[in-house]
Amino acid sequence: MNAVTHPLDEAALRCTGLGLKVRDAVLLDAVDLEVRRGETLGIVGPNGSGKSTLLKLLAGLRTPTCGEVQLGSNALRQLPRREVARRLAVVEQQADTSDAINVFDAVALGRTPWLSALRPWSADDHAIVQQALADVDATHLATRSWRSLSGGERQRVHIARALAQRPQLLLLDEPTNHLDIQHQLGILRLVQALPVTTLIALHDLNQALTCDRLAVLERGRLVDVGPPLQVLTPQRLQATFGVQAHYLTDPFDGAQILRVRSS
Amino acid sequence: MTGSVVRGLLACLALLLAILAGVAIGETPIAPSVVLQVLANKLWAAGHLLDPIDEGIVWNYRLTRALVAAACGAGLATCGVVLQSLLRNPLADPYLLGISAGASTGAVLVALLGLGAGAITLSLGAFVGAIAAFALVALLARASGPSNSTGQIILAGIAGSQLFNALTAFLITRSASAEQARGILFWLLGNLSGVRWPSVWLAVPVALAGLAVCVWHRRALDAFTFGSDSAASLGIPVRRVQVLLISCAALVTAVMVSIVGAIGFVGLVIPHAMRLLFGTPHARLLPASALGGALFLIAADVLSRTLIKGQVIPVGVITALVGAPVFALILIGRRSAR
């Protein structure tokens, strides 16, 4: 697998007092969050609560108005972009292209931060791309053109591209959006099986229950972090999402399921 | 590796053959063997006995013309590739974005003010005009709506082109003598008639340097495939690369415009054709487009001299006649790709 293991002593990614203001609108307000090595941390919240904004700030794609992001032991803004990209990969929500690029070349883009004039494309890079394709079960797509792929296949290729960066950390922004249910589950299973630290924004609360921990955003503020069942309480769902909810137990495997009604 | 060497040699061969054809074909055809003998005489004093008029035509008129055409075509096609990749817009082209119009205004201003009408000062004026035009167009596109809609910057480019063309016309009417005005208007349509060796020494190095800078950044250009956020997450210093490469494109465009006027559509037609033939990775696309642009403009120049007997059509007219239908095809193709 494409993974680099590291000592478990420090947080993989941490932000303190992170905020973003655009004109007078506060998109994100004083968020303190720590992503532990090896965990899958889910971010949930209603539309417009700042999930994508938080991911963009954590990835260094936007500059915060205040606060600090710490990647491992370094301040994110002091690291060169290339160094960040070697440690942290991002899967955006539905990044598309009109170019007639083929799948192998799209995944090969993930090697960009590792290549330079002095270190050209090598057999190792080729093997890493092959491995990344295999990891997302997309080896058979390698020669297909991007335009011919379905939404689920495209998302898998994006994840493969991110894996080809050989990151320690993977940030995903609602990767299951607009996919049919089979592909949603496939992508989630895939992401959770990856041996990298994962931060994932999710829309579906039942899917979010499968994360190690959850962070809840509400109008740009982080209102709770913790194990899913402790965080997504009926009170929280009422307060943040404005829905009535209670848990059912799946007789098939004993898992907890959220049953949600509009209040 | 050997494959790319072979491809490089084939590319050079194709370019040499095209230049040879460009020199040989014309109102008075000159046999390719004579062309080669002239080159041999000039390059290593081979001492072939030739008609001095033929020799003059080949060396001072046709060869310079073919070389400048090749450099311009290569430069403009390279600019097209870079603009399309960085702006994520298949219709981006120095001409359509108003960069050429801005360069024309800058060059005309310098020429009319008589600020030392050398090739370098003309180019500098054109460069300032090109940058000003692109800045205006980019600001207008940003102010007019969501940054990613492809139509926006093209509309802004049309507005920019119109504005700078009007400025140019105003400058000419206000300050140029009738004779100057005629010359400038002919040059504006794209014209290779006046080029001599000094133009070659400006156009060829600039085209090669521009290509080299872009090829050096080929991986960065590849990384923009899925947009600038994606490029940033792949470790590209997005703003720095954009400023550098767009300035480079503006400079190449400006130099070409100051030598031959605003030739449109090369930067649009050639990159699209080359993507179909060689795929999207810039390591191949950039050299292929430069070569394709060179061949295209040499061919367009030959056509412009031979299509109507005794008349020279501005080469920009030929490229537009080819380019406008391709523009339409791209528009239609985009709809069906959705």
How would the blueprint of this fold be written?
The complex is a heterodimer of chains A (263) and B (338).
Chain A lengths: L12 E10 L2 E11 L4 E5 L6 H9 L6 E6 L2 E2 L5 H7 E4 L11 H6 L14 H13 L15 H14 L4 E5 L7 H13 L3 E5 L3 H4 L4 E6 L2 E6 L1 H4 L2 H8 L1 E7 L6 E7 L1
Parallel strand pairs in A: 3-8, 3-9, 6-7, 7-8
Antiparallel strand pairs in A: 1-2, 1-4, 4-5, 9-10, 11-12
Chain B lengths: L1 H23 L7 H13 L7 H36 L11 H15 L5 H25 L6 H26 L2 H11 L8 H20 L1 H6 L4 H6 L4 H23 L5 H13 L3 H25 L8 H23 L1
Helix pairs in contact in B: 1-3, 1-13, 2-3, 3-8, 3-11, 3-12, 3-13, 4-5, 4-6, 4-11, 5-6, 5-11, 8-11, 12-13, 13-14
Question: Can you put this structure into words, describing what you see?
Answer:
The complex is a heterodimer of chains A (263) and B (338). Chain A is built from nine helices and twelve strands. Chain A has helices at residues 51-59, 81-87, 103-108, 123-135, 151-164, 181-193, 205-208, 228-231, 234-241, and strands at residues 13-22, 25-35, 40-44, 66-71, 74-75, 88-91, 169-173, 197-201, 213-218, 221-226, 243-249, 256-262. The longest helix of chain A has 14 residues, at 151-164. Chain A is globular and about 55 Å long. Chain B is mainly α and 338 residues long. Chain B has one domain (17-337): Orthogonal Bundle (ABC transporter involved in vitamin B12 uptake, BtuC), CATH 1.10.3470. Chain B has 14 helices and no strands. The radius of gyration of chain B is 20 Å and the shape is globular. The model of chain B has no long low-confidence stretch (mean pLDDT 88). The interface between A and B is medium-sized, with 34 and 26 residues.
